[in-house]
Amino acid sequence: MSHATEPQPVTASPGAPLRGALRPPGDKSISHRAMILGLLSIGETRIEGLLEGDDVLSTASAARQLGASMERLGDGRWVVRGVGIGGMSDPAETLDFGNAGTGSRLMMGVVGGQPVTATFDGDASLRKRPMRRILDPLLKMGTEIVGEAEGGRVPLTLRGPSEAIPITYETPVASAQIKSAVLFAGLNAPGVTTVIETAATRDHTERMLRLFGAEVVVTPHGPEGHGRAIALTGQPTLRGTGVVVPADPSSAAFPLVAALIVPGSEVTIEGVMMNPLRIGLITTLIEMGGDIERLNEREEGGETVADLRVRASRLKGVGVPAERAPAMIDEYPVLAVAAAFAEGTTRMNGLHELRVKESDRLAAVADGLGANGIDYAIEGDDLIVHGNGSAPRGGGTVATHLDHRIAMSFLVLGLASQHPVSVDDGAMIATSFPSFTLSMRALGATISG
């Protein structure tokens, strides 16, 4: 899906119970990092289960432009031959990341620590997203900003130093993207680069750096140990390796919530990553009374995975603490949908980060709820949804603002609301879950468009 594609309206309608099994696409976070670390390694990196959505393919294209060679062997199976740290070359063209906020920010860290010059750009949505939080630490590490759009947004051009400067950096907000960008830049620094975070964020970068041969030490930080200090020893020799990408819990969220709210449903979602820093939604849905059973736990690609058996459930409203946000930041839109079917009030606290995603997700979720007759309120950075334990009216058309998670969340709503729900554009769903419509139809969902 090109970001120049014409809008593709999609409608979801209530129907029969959902039954069957599916495996969601490979985890997007790990897929991005596998491509990037393949670029920075010596030798071959063999990847299985790669998410072949537009976002990851944009990162793959950028890695190729920076010097990697790669070959697609089949569905989700790739070989990347890297150039090693310090071996990248200037790309001949602009690195176009489309809608990929993660890919663009992580690759800014890569370029910012290496002796190359590259221009970053993307679609209309990406051009609105803030990059200053990534650029600030990179400037301390010796990166030069050659040109940028207003407010530190793309299109922007970065020139990296011959060697990055090792720094100790405390992230201003809980963000795995900031942490990862600094660590990737620190790979070319002659010393130890340390990132301090007051609240632990997803740790895929640390895990995968070790998998490729880097020395990374993680210690608790802060008075109660909720934060972490991540210390990377720079200028390692990274070696290509095998990466098995587990199923993405953020993509699993949509069939999971659909199975909980469509009466009579029973669905098994296979191979879902169970990283403790990624399962905030599952924890919350179980607190709400969701019947979610973990089966066949095992290890894949350095991560614990499990199959989830999900049955339709009567949900109740709960309070979701702000400190849980880093473990479920992408899942709040579909949690809001689940909350619309719950008995009582669900209050999701501390959602500031939703305002700087692919869209202002907090506003987009609120507008979508309102368009479908759901009682909600926003107080500061908190989203409050009032449910009465029955199906909401539905019948609305939701503006997605080029945001794949908004599109999928409200299509899930339409599968169980009183009347069908439409989204103005489903084209961008391909960025993270290209098979969403086909996979949901295979379970019995009625989705047209």
In the CATH hierarchy, what is the class of the largest domain? Answer: Alpha Beta
Structural class: alpha/beta
CATH architectural group of the largest domain: Alpha-beta prism
Q: End-to-end distance, in Å?
A: 15 Å
Helical residue percent? 25-40%
CATH topology of the largest domain: the name is: UDP-n-acetylglucosamine1-carboxyvinyl-transferase, Chain
**Fourth-level CATH superfamily of the largest domain:** Enolpyruvate transferase domain
User: In what order do the strands lie side by side in the largest sheet?
Assistant: 22-23-1-24
State the helix count.
13
- List the domain count as a whole number: 2
Low-confidence stretches: none
User: Mean pLDDT, as a whole number?
Assistant: 95
